[in-house]
Amino acid sequence: MAENGSSDVTTVPDGPDKVRKSVSVDATPSVDEPETDAEPVVGDEITAEDVEDVNCLELDFNHRRLKTIKNLENLKCIERLYLRWNLLKKIENVSTLTTLRELELYDNQITVIENLDCLVNLEVLDLSFNRITHIGGLENLTNLEKLFLCDNKIQKIENINHLKKLQYLELGDNKLRTIENLEGLTNLTSLFLGKNKITKIQNLECLPQLEVFSLQSNRITKLENLEKLTKLEQLYVSENGLKEIEGLENNTELTTLDLSLNKISQIKNVDHLTKLEEFWMNDNEITDWACVEKLTANKQLVTVYLERNPLSKDGAYRRKVMLTLPWLQQLDATMCRPQTESLVLSTSTIKASCLQSPKRCNAVLSCNVP
């Protein structure tokens, strides 16, 4: 990809008989170009010179302050088109780009999803950070695998049931109130619904392949209706109104569980999660040290967050947790050394041990004694 505003063609082998070509066009002035006092032209357009190579596979028009999409009709092989950070208000003049596989329109001023019917080979569509209020216009995009619609003004999940190949759906930071209309998305593996107004976990039984589920910053008060998600590996429900850990009986594949910033006072119902590696419980209401002992069943734990719970005010907090869970590699934001807190040896003791037994000396030094 070209830097500092230069146009460049890069060739990368993509197989024995295929060459990948990409053209990058950036609005940033080159360091070799003379400086001028002229202001950047608002509403710059894509010119014929920008797409001189009609056989290129990739075009980058990020940060060009473009107001319209045009002059792309001669492209014959384009697969990836990047139009991030512009001033586009409408999706237009892309109907000839039937070879397109990836289209990025992130951070523009688009209000309607439209004019995409001919892009039947599209696999990735990013319309995040726009002004879209309604999901539509995707009827012909049956090959879509990833759809990004975060930070818009969408109030309802709809018109995506036909996207049978969809694997990744991002709808965070919208105005959703209900999880609904996901039937048909049987291949979905990642679903992101954070920062909405959702009050209930529901209608997920149609997503048997789901592995990553995020509901951060919503209005959830109960963990429920997750029993069909038997392949779930990562669950993020921080910043809600949860008071109990429950409803995870069938989610035995979980490796990451984020329950931070809730109102939970007891750690329980996680001892069956034998694959759990990341357990985030900071900013809750844990007061009882017996709760930490409940985690001794989770031998695969690598990282635990408990900071800003009442028990973390204990002066021996870190030492107590490490004595209880000596296999941890990280507690809160700090890495853990091997269980050295209980092995406090003076320099004279180490020297004496070395004189008595060189083998023991080597063992002691390998413990990384403070």
UniProtKB/TrEMBL annotation:
Q: Which UniProt keywords apply?
A: Leucine-rich repeat, Nucleus, Repeat
Cite the residue spans of the region called Disordered. 1-43
Give start-end of the signal peptide. Answer: none
Biased-composition ranges, Polar residues, are 1-10
Which coarse location class applies to the principal site listed for this UniProt protein?
nucleus
Recorded hits in PANTHER family, A to Z, give: PROTEIN PHOSPHATASE 1 REGULATORY SUBUNIT 7, PROTEIN PHOSPHATASE 1 REGULATORY SUBUNIT SDS22-RELATED
Q: What does this protein do?
A: Cilium-specific protein required for cilia structures.
What is the protein name for this chain? Dynein axonemal assembly factor 1 homolog
Organism for this UniProt entry: Thrips palmi
List the taxonomic lineage. Answer: Eukaryota, Metazoa, Ecdysozoa, Arthropoda, Hexapoda
What is the gene name? LOC117654066
